[in-house]
């Protein structure tokens, strides 16, 4: 896949699940957001920003992968998004305390 294709697919998934994501964000965040605010934020993300949002550990806040070195290669080598997620899951497992930010997507 190319990076733009991956970014578009990740955005599409977040928009489809917007209501679920917003309700789980609002459970833990003191700053409540609306579904529309979330959708606007997703739509205004650059390709890099949306991809990076999947690559930050929700356990410790650190990057799961060094972005420029690994992600481009993983994205190029992945034939589809399922393969991209399975590589991401391997990296998360290697990271230790990691859970994917958007676990259910
Ligand atoms: Zn971590």
Task: Give an overview of the whole structure.
The chain has 105 residues and is an all-alpha fold. It has one domain (3-95). 64% of the residues lie in helices and 0% in strands. The protein has six helices and no strands. The longest helix has 15 residues, at 81-95. The model has no long low-confidence stretch (mean pLDDT 85). Zinc ion binds next to loops.
Question: How are the SSEs ordered, and which strands pair?
Answer:
Blueprint: H1 3-16, H2 18-28, H3 35-44, H4 47-52, H5 67-77, H6 81-95
Distance between the termini: 18 Å
What count of helical segments does DSSP give? 6
Mean pLDDT: 85
Q: Count the beta strands.
A: 0
The percent range for strand residues is: under 5%
Radius of gyration: 14 Å
Runs in which pLDDT lies below 50 for 5 or more consecutive residues are none
Total individual domains: 1
- Which distinct ligands sit in these coordinates? zinc ion
**H/E element order:** HHHHHH
Main sheet characteristics: none
Structural class: mainly alpha
Which of globular, elongated, flat, extended, rod-shaped describes the shape? globular
Please name the defining characteristics of this protein.
single chain, 105 residues, mainly alpha, 0% strand, binds zinc ion
Provide a compact summary of the structure:
By secondary structure, this protein is mainly α. The protein has one domain.
């Amino acid at each position: 896949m190319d990076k733009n294709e991956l970014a578009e697919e990740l955005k599409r998934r977040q928009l489809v699940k917007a209501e679920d994501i917003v309700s789980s964000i609002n459970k833990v965040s003191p700053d409540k957001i609306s579904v529309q605010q979330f959708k606007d934020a997703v739509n205004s993300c650059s390709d890099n920003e949306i991809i990076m949002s999947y690559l930050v550990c929700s356990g410790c806040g650190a990057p799961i992968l060094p972005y420029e070195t690994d992600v481009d290669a993983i994205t190029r080598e992945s034939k589809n998004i399922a393969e991209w997620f399975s590589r991401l899951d391997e990296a998360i497992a290697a990271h230790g305390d990691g859970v994917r930010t958007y676990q259910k997507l």
